[in-house]
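Feature request, filed as a ticket because there's no other form

It would be nice if the structure record came with a short human-readable summary line next to the tokens. Right now we just get the raw output. Example of a typical job, pasted below so the devs can see what we mean:
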Amino acid sequence: MCLSCFATAFTALAAETIEYEEDIEAAVALAESQPVVPDKGTNISTFATSGTYPTRKGVILATNTNDSLGGKTFVGHAAIIYNAQSVVEALHKVSLGKNNWNTTKSKCWGVTVRGTTSAQDAAAANWCYRQIGKSYNYNFANVSTRNSFYCSQLVWASFKDLYGIDLNTSTLGVIVTPMELVNTNKTSVIYSKS
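Raw output as currently delivered:
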């Protein structure tokens, strides 16, 4: 997609989300108030109150800012951990990124899906990995497409398609936002930098 097309889509989303600005701010406040719990299989005696930055395959990362858009706070960004060094994310297209959010983001959360095993989480990451190369979905309300993805839709779709687990809280209707992946009662926060 050309840069001017991206700017047009970004402006349209910004205009749509202005009316939801209070909801987005409330979602960030809710995420900041979530208790941090040990990850699946973690020894409770080694657990810190902010958690340990996750490297386990299938853990979801979310932030309320999108550094690729100049750090705008309006919706955020999400990815799923593929390995200790990499995440699968949708920026301009689905691709591998660096698993370094603990040093590159001012705020971020690591969450695990309740009711799944570590092996199922890894399968969700593999599902996302198989989407690499697909284009970015600028039609944020079209979460049913599997031909293109935006960041949180990609993560949401992996658990929805594989296990029937819907991580959307409907804060912005059918649009799935990164903060919803943190705030749904179907995930647990295992890491918080806020």
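Something like this underneath would help us a lot:
Residues 1-12, 14-18 have pLDDT under 50 and may be disordered.
The domain at 3-193 is CATH 3.90.1720.10 (endopeptidase fold (from Nostoc punctiforme)).
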